[in-house]
Design the sequence.
């Protein structure tokens, strides 16, 4: 665990009075936040294929392995992207498009309103990426430790405080020939530069700026809700009268469908 001193500037983070059209903070009615201990999660990112930290991130925060595995749920055990930085994580087995949300991203915001944002992109080959649509209704610049209203934000990787994941549904993506949503092997997060980057509508995005030392989005983990079933190892195929008995090994909890064609008895 990193030994750092952090100043929780709660006096600079007043309750947000306005309310936009999107989901509210964790614990409030209508929130989509997923607790880090939710039984929905079946896997976590297992490797980092690329990490390009941006500006104003100290070396102590540049360990990409901190983004692997299950979330620690504290403000220290994270990898920082820095201003405009990015990180790409790999998933084996890949994420698939199932019913509802398919994965969730965990950040380390220490309140419901101190949110450092990132774009979310996915790929099924590690080369071609598609970005989730995003919407920011924050109307004015936000200072270094300013507040954001989560109900004004949609499609970013950091809507919720530490310990709660922001979910993403692959079916929300527009059909793209370059990406197979039944087999997403990579997720890339790209830090939003407040006051410079724009959302899917072309509106300028505002988030806390300029932060220093641990600037930009801070990744704790990415949790998988729907994963491809892992391959099975067939142990035996044994005729038994009019039936055939098949034995195999697989991961606990995986679901499979058996289809047979042709003459299996010969």
Sequence:
């Amino acid at each position: 665990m990193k030994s750092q001193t952090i100043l929780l500037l709660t006096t600079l983070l007043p309750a947000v009075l306005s309310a936009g059209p999107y989901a509210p903070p964790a614990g409030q009615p209508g929130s989509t936040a997923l607790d880090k201990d939710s039984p929905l999660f079946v896997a976590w990112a297992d490797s980092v294929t690329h990490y390009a930290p941006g500006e104003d991130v100290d070396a102590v925060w540049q360990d990409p392995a901190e983004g692997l595995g299950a979330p620690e749920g504290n403000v220290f055990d994270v990898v920082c992207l820095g201003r405009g930085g990015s990180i790409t994580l790999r998933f084996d087995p890949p994420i698939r498009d199932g019913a509802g949300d398919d994965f969730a991203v965990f950040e380390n915001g220490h309140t419901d309103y101190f949110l450092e944002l990132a774009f979310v992109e996915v790929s099924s080959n590690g080369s071609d990426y598609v970005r989730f649509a995003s919407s920011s209704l924050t109307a004015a610049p936000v200072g270094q430790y300013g507040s954001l209203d989560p109900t004004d934000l949609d499609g970013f990787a950091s809507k919720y405080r530490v310990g709660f994941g922001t979910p993403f549904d692959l079916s929300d993506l527009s059909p793209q020939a370059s990406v197979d949503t039944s087999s997403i092997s990579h997720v890339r997060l790209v830090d939003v530069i407040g006051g410079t980057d724009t959302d899917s509508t072309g509106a300028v995005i505002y988030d806390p700026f300029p932060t220093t030392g641990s600037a930009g989005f801070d990744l704790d983990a990415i949790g998988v809700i729907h994963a491809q079933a892992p391959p099975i190892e067939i142990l035996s195929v044994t005729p038994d009268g009019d039936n055939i008995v098949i034995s195999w090994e697989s991961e606990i909890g995986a679901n499979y469908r058996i289809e047979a064609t042709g003459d299996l008895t010969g």
In short: Confidence is low (pLDDT under 50) at residues 1-17.
